Amino acid sequence: MLDSNCFFLFQQVTYRIDHWFSPIETPPTFWPEVTSACFMFQLSSYHLVSLLRERISKYQNRPALCYANSSDGQDISWAELGVQVEELALALIAAGLDVQGKVAIFSRNMPEWTVADLATLWCRGVSVPIYPTNTAKQAAYIIKDAGARILFVGEQEQFDAALGISADNPELERIIAMDASIDLRSSEKACHMQAFVNAHGDRAERAELQSRLEGMCMDDLLTLIYTSGTTGEPKGVMLDYTNIAAGFKSHDSRLTLTEDDVSICFLPLSHVFERAWTYYVLYRGAKNIYMRDQTDIKNVMSSVRPTVMCAVPRLYEKMHTAIFAKVETAPSGKKKLFKWAVGCAEKRFLLEQQGKTAGPLLKFSCAIGEKLVYSKLRAAMGGRIRYFPCGGARLADDINLFFQSIGIHIKIGYGLSETTATVSCYEDSGFKFGTTGQPLLGVEMRIGEENEIQIKSDTVMRGYYNKPEATAEAFTKDGWFRTGDAGYIDEAGNVVMTERLKDLMKTSGGKYIAPQVVEGALVRDHFVEQVAVIADARKYVSALIVPAFEALEEYAHSIGVKFENRMELLRHSDIQEMFHKRLEQLQSELARFEQVKKFTLLNREFSLEKGEMTPTLKLRRKVIMERFRKEIEAMYPGRH
Questions:
Q1: 264 lies in some domain
Q2: Which residues pair with 534 in a beta bridge?
Q3: Which of the two residues, 233 and 188, has the higher pLDDT score?
Q4: Contact status, residue 545 vs residue 522, Cβ threshold 8 Å
Q5: How far lies 24's CA from each of 37, 287, 444, in Å?
Q6: Under DSSP, is residue 500 helix (H, G, I), strand (E, B) or coil?
Q7: What is the pLDDT of residue 231?
């Protein structure tokens, strides 16, 4: 494997040198202007470890890593972060971690996650995140494929899974529990993190750590991030320090983030989006707030009052649903006030996007709306939001417009694990709905065969670990990364992602369906929680729909529908008729062959635990098709 890794390293280095010294062939209106050679060489001053050591020295007693709930622990200052990271790095060296040795982290978000991550990087190791919701089998695959000898775990659930994994994997030598309350089950391989630190690290390790710090290299592998695997087995995306440095440089050209900002670490740190963003937050000297329980986001936002926070569109879809469900049950006067105020805000925002100024009457109306509606909505999210980076899927334009209009700037972007997350995103103003903004500094994009979006950038991965064939397939012959996403670049240089090529479905009539487009149209409704479209080799499109039960039950009570349980509610003729009518309205802009003709309402959500969703909340369609085969076949009578 060493030979193939070296080959791909050589390939990437030669590509970078060749790329930055060659003229830009792509029309300049499609991507930012860059100084060809300078960008690459400036990256050498952006080594993550060097930058963070500088921040530790500069900020000292300022808070760096904070707990969302004070009961979980005390905030960690920059000075304390430096001490904890160095002590843990010494312990890792004493435990036998070699340069570029692999360390896995299997945990929900907590400051200790980042401490373990940075300690691994401090001694030139490679950190391998594992989603906390992964099954033991999924985690075992990653640990074995990466060759991790040391595993950090966050809570009892992950620890117990790790014990089972270690029984079948003798190469896993140590399990380190980051939470002091974890029961170690008398395992000889296990210890708590503080005990691990106390038992290791002396003069020899300090000399070795200093030597490793002096030998830091931009081409060192920094992390392996395993794709969630909607099809096939996960692949370990190899990212190095140049990838992260290029991300910093490109984000600096588009975003403003300062030491006064406060970010909530909301998405799993095992997700490339949150991981890369956390590095960026620390690099900029901002405060990072860690929350273990994502379901507590409403309370955490109001108490922490973030200025920035990464999230996926589903969070805003849920917020939008909750707000409008509450409005639907409000007294008539308040309902009319809300709709009027939002309408005024949206008119003003759309005028401003066109470079026009609202008239006196509209300005006055919006001033009233600000006092009575917009400010209260923002206050529920903390009241001091500057912008919220958002990616991972498409956010419906009407939801996007609602939040932008009331003063919550959702900065839509596009990226993948293989591109170190974001490669395009909105500007602060003048952005276009339906797009993911323009490419960042140093990112080139083109449209290849089948309208595939292809990328060249120093943020593009080195390759897939242990998978040279998959790596070769991921790049074109002339060195462009193949995203697997179809789309186009509009006349203004904005990137538009239309569908995932591998997810396209073909009906028995030969029509191609992009399920994300149809699902995105339906999930906008505040009565819809989840949707899985069925169309492949079928006469027409159907859908499995998970209702938003809280909103649906409130509606049922309001129209006098009586029910004993969810199934009785879902089968009621009034509820079925209501969904039929709403689906007709929601699909009015879809082509007739794309529209859902039949649907089945499900009484439970698709879940991670049942293997129906990936850790990044993407549908595992193959699993869903098998698990709900009976319900699906009932929507196609006469099919054999």
A1: yes
A2: 542
A3: 188
A4: yes
A5: 11, 38, 9
A6: strand
A7: 53
Task: Say if residue 125's pLDDT is above 70.
Answer: yes
Residue 1: is its pLDDT beyond 80?
no
pTM for this prediction: 0.83
Q: Give 442-458 as a 3 state SS string.
A: CCEEEECHHHEEEEECC
What is the identity of the amino acid at 377?
L
Residue 563: which domain range?
A: 504-634
Query: What's the maximum distance between 2 C-alpha atoms anywhere in the chain?
Result: 77
Burial code of 485-497, b = ≥16 C-beta within 10 A, e = fewer? bbbebeeebbbbb
pLDDT in tens, 126-156: 999 999 988 898 899 999 999 999 999 999 9
Please tell me the predicted confidence (pLDDT) of residue 229. 58
CATH code, 612: 3.30.300.30
Residue 340 lies in a domain: no
Laid out side by side, the sheet with 481-489 consists of 444-447, 452-456, 481-489, 495-500
Between β-strands 102-106 and 76-77, what pairing exists: parallel, antiparallel or unpaired? unpaired
* DSSP-assigned beta bridge partners for residue 411: 389
| Spacing of C-alpha 368 from chain mean position | 36
Q: How far apart are CA 240 and CA 458, in angstroms?
A: 10
CB 321 within 8 A of CB 526: yes
Handedness of CA 47, 50, 54, 55 (dihedral sign): positive
Q: CATH number of the domain that 85 lies in?
A: 3.40.50.980
**What is the mean pLDDT of the segment spanning 433-454?**
96
Q: Residues 195-205: pLDDT tens digits?
A: 999 987 777 89
Q: Kindly indicate the confidence band of residue 113, based on its pLDDT and cuts at 50, 70 and 90.
A: very high
Q: 581, exposed or middle or buried, with CB in 10 Å at 0-12, 13-18, 19+? A: exposed
Instruction: Tell me the pLDDT of the chain averaged across its residues.
Output: 89
More confident residue, 37 or 425: 425
Mean pLDDT of 50-59: 96
Burial state string for 4-26 with b = 16 or more CB within 10 A and e = fewer than 16: ebeebbebbeebbeebbeeeeee
What is the C-alpha to C-alpha distance for residues 522 and 526, in angstroms, rounded to an integer? 9
Is there a domain that residue 469 lies in? no
| Burial (CB count within 10 angstroms: exposed 0-12, middle 13-18, buried 19+), residue 474 | buried
The helix-helix angle for 313-328 and 397-405 (nearest 10°) equals: 70
Q: Is the CB of residue 149 less than 8 Å from the CB of residue 125? A: no
